[in-house]
Amino acid sequence: MLARALSQVVEGLLLVMMVVLCLDVFLGVFSRYVMARTFTWYDEIARLLFVWIVFLGAAVGVRRSAHFRLHLVLDRFPPGMRRVAHVVGVLVLMGFGLLMIQQGWKLVELGQFQRTPVMGLSKQYVYASVPTGGALIILYGLPHLWRALRGAPGPVSA
Amino acid sequence: MIPIIAVSFLVLLLLGVPVAFVIGMAGFIGLWWSGEYPLTVIVKQIFEGVDSFVLLAIPLFILAGSLMETGGIAVRLVRLAQVLVGWIRGGLSMAVVVAEYIFSGISGSTVADVSAIGSTMIPPMLRAGYRPEQAVAVVSAASAMGILVPPCILMIVIGSVANVSVAALFAAGFLPAVVLALAIMAYIWYDAGRSGIEARERASWGDIWRAFADAVMPLGLPAIIFGGILGGVVTPTEAAVLAVIYAFIVGVFVYREIAWADLPRILVQSAVVTAAVCFLLGTAAVVAWVLAVQQIPQLLLSAMLAVPGGNLVFLALTALLFIALGAVLEGLPAVVILLPTFMPVVTRLGIDVIHYSTVVVAATGIGLFLPPIGVGFFIACGIANIPGDRATPAMMPYVYMMCAGLLIVILVPWVTLVIPRLLHLG
Questions:
Q1: What is the ipTM of this complex?
Q2: Is the pLDDT of residue B196 over 50?
Q3: What is the phi/psi pair of residue A74, to 5°?
Q4: Residues B48, B52, B54: CA angle, nearest 5 degrees
Q5: What pLDDT is stored for residue A157 in this prediction?
Q6: Best mutation site among B111, B248, B279 for testing chain A: the one with the most A CBs within 10 Å?
Q7: pLDDT at A158 over 70
Q8: At a CB cut-off of 8 Å and minimum separation 6, what does B318 contact?
Q9: Inter-chain touch B21–A93, beta carbons under 8 Å
């Protein structure tokens, strides 16, 4: 229940950010060619949205098994080994999520002394995308871990 | 540090861990083992690999492509291609190649191309008497060629990691794509003669006109993208947002093939596909950074300068390497890790950066469809519902023909460079 509600929030955020990204870049083009003066803030907003889309989207990609993986060798493993490989695989994902939280947090702390050049926005808001993405990767990894431990068939993806 | 990274990379890759995490984790293990650098380098490099204005074109092109990838568009383009080349021997296959050339000009993703063209063309080809493995081979070869037709996500990534003009890379792709297409079509012609597939009747001018009129809306999109970028009016990112708006209007208001209720799903899916590509790019930047601080580019440079044959040997080795890596790793991480490493060699040998990048793109395209493990080839087999090893013998002649085409692209830099130079982009 809680997991589903969280997913809806995250996917809703992705949706809104994609729409705002399109509008923002369009406004940038519009200001440059139609109004003959460029909005200086548009590329800063676009990049802020883009990094958030990437790190939240990467986490949703874990949930949907959308990340590219090499499964050809794995498919030839005997079932027992395949199960171990799945568990190890999910643990690696979650371990990397942990790394993103831990090291990403240091980045956020550094960010309090930095501001974006045009809008003067604290870089903490930009860097926060990294630990947030890491936390979501761990959360979305949990159901995969549960299935891998029970020996359910692994994720199907490209 | 490098051997540790290489070993952890291989082990995790074979265990079936997603490639983005394989690369990131291998980089982490290497840095942690050496203990020479702060681990914050990892997130810092991932972040900086992702935070770039050039890359913004990726979500926008992916979104424009998925708005245009509704069934109606592919069908209209295929019909146009059929009236144009359907009367030649092997016409239906010829039409696949031409349709894919145009369709690639809409979609930035090769994997999306093979799904769209494959599901539109493979059933009619089977009905027309083609064997399934023939249909798979033609669709795979055409899609491999299509990676060279802009917009192309890989070119945007190269623009970002190697600091090359994306507009120039886009312009550079057109003619090499024609060379590969002709190589493919030559074999189609020969093969159709051998298996006795009859040509269709030549379409009347009226039919051609009707097919054109019908396809004018989908053709508007490449017109915007190429006109805008190649004319130097807009940057690729800006052209991409115009493409999104055009595709949105065509899909929702003109053709009405996209319901408003479908839009959230399309937008979120585009975000996830973008994230999968760009997150991989970020983690690959970690390993690229490690290679750089370990002076690997310098080592490679002195090694390559000692190899006889110079430029041609280097280009040929590059092509072989990226064909192999394109098959195993889907190309993208190899480009992010290796291109910054190779670039000093490229400039030192006096090879044009645009020419070199185009060779890398073409080789990656062939790799994506290299039997038996190329991911694109796999998708095509899935659409025709045949096992990969059955389609492999039918595919190999096309692989050889495309390699021959690639050799021409390597030997004659003019093919790649003439358009960017005419447009003053290179």
A1: 0.92
A2: yes
A3: -55, -40
A4: 150
A5: 41
A6: B279
A7: no
A8: B342, B356, B359, B360, B363
A9: yes
